[in-house]
């Protein structure tokens, strides 16, 4: 800048502040007492801004508070068991985890990552797919002993079915008939719940027939606590699992990027039992 331009800017600053900052003397231009104080305070402010910028970008080491929202079934059976390993790997990260089947607004609730199952709505959020799991129909042995197995999907109308008390992307239960044609059934649900884990517990208690993701009930099936219902009519419909977040990946905080990478590496969803599937196909 030219000396005249600097002089004009200083004059404007002095007028705005209502005090003299610089004074000419035989030695040249010197700071007044007010000018010296103003200069030192401004240096301090500039250093604070620089420190804030350094803190935001100083390191690729994940650190700070990470807020995560997750639906109840996935959180209970997958996310919570993985947390000790994540915290051991990233000791400078503090986790704030909320389990809810409610679809939250990430910006409004200041959440870094949300894990969601099912088809994603067009929300403008960025996502990373963690896997997919078959949707299956199940019931407890005690329920089957009392009420029997429904022979066809349409016979579900005569059974106690479990439903959700909130709107879903697909409320109807999808099957495939013996000719390979897709058919859907909207069962009359006698009991409704607000989250998938509650539905699983009611199914285990013999209350009714439930439609849940395989990842949610795989252990129960292996242990015989639940049985597959209408497997020979299965449509092999799958439910994707995504981690969603705000903003482009290149702008993510290190703690968020580390958490997403960790989930992609660690989450392994079960696949349908090949033997059971072949048996079901032969019986059709």
UniProtKB/TrEMBL annotation:
Keywords: DNA-binding, Plasmid, Transcription, Transcription regulation
InterPro entries in UniProt: LysR-type_TF_proteobact-type, LysR_HTH_N, LysR_subst-bd, WH-like_DNA-bd_sf, WH_DNA-bd_sf
Signal is among the record's keywords: no
One Pfam family cited in the UniProt record for this chain: LysR_substrate
Domain of life: Bacteria
SUPFAM superfamilies for the chain: Periplasmic binding protein-like II, Winged helix' DNA-binding domain
Occurrences of domain HTH lysR-type (ranges): 1-32
Similarity section: Belongs to the LysR transcriptional regulatory family.
Record's protein name: LysR family transcriptional regulator
Organism: Paraburkholderia terrae
High-level lineage: Bacteria, Pseudomonadati, Pseudomonadota, Betaproteobacteria, Burkholderiales
């Amino acid at each position: 800048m030219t000396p005249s331009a600097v002089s004009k800017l200083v004059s404007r600053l002095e007028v705005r502040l209502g005090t003299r900052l610089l004074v000419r003397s035989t030695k040249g231009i010197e700071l007044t007492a007010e000018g010296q104080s103003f200069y030192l305070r401004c240096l301090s402010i500039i250093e604070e801004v620089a420190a804030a910028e350094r803190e935001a970008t100083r390191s690729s080491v994940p650190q700070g508070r990470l807020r995560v929202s997750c639906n109840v079934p996935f959180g209970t059976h997958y996310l919570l068991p993985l947390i000790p390993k994540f915290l051991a790997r990233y000791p400078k990260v503090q986790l704030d985890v909320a389990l809810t089947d409610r679809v939250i607004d990430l910006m409004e609730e200041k959440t870094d990552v949300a894990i969601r199952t099912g088809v994603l709505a067009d929300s403008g959020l960025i996502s990373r797919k963690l896997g997919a799991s078959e949707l299956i129909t199940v019931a407890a042995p005690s329920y089957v002993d009392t009420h029997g197995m429904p022979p066809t999907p349409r016979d579900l109308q005569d059974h106690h079915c479990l439903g959700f008390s909130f709107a879903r992307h697909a409320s109807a239960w999808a099957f495939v008939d013996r000719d390979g044609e897709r058919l859907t059934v909207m069962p009359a649900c006698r009991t409704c719940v607000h989250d998938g884990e509650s539905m699983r517990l009611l199914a285990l208690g013999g209350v009714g027939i439930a439609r849940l993701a395989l990842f949610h009930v795989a252990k129960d099936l292996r242990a015989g606590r639940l049985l597959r219902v209408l497997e020979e009519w299965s449509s092999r419909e799958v439910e994707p699992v995504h981690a969603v977040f705000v903003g482009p990946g290149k702008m993510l905080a290190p703690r968020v990027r580390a958490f997403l990478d960790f989930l992609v590496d660690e989450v392994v969803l079960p696949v349908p039992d090949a033997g059971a599937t072949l048996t079901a196909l032969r019986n059709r």
